[in-house]
Amino acid sequence: MNKELRTEWQLTYDLGDPWSSCMSWLFPVCDYLTYETDQDVPDSWQFKPSMFGANTDDYNFQTLKELNLPSKDILHFGSLLIRFDKLLKRKNLDY
Question: What's the predicted TM-score (pTM) here?
Fold first, then answer.
């Protein structure tokens, strides 16, 4: 995982609400991939873009833009978030 992106994840991670932390990054990752790169969001992620476009005011979306990472790094981060989401759901830590 990209070092800068890992640092941002750690800075924004909420130990008391891991699922919210996951979702607060997953949606901006999908928006960024959809609207800022030529990379498609994998169908298995079940993401449907908003008809209003990306939430460009979101802190995590802005962070992704500022980091200006290769789309493969962001796709890898998104894949980790999807795995984390599935783990949290199995443990009933989602809502």
Answer: 0.94
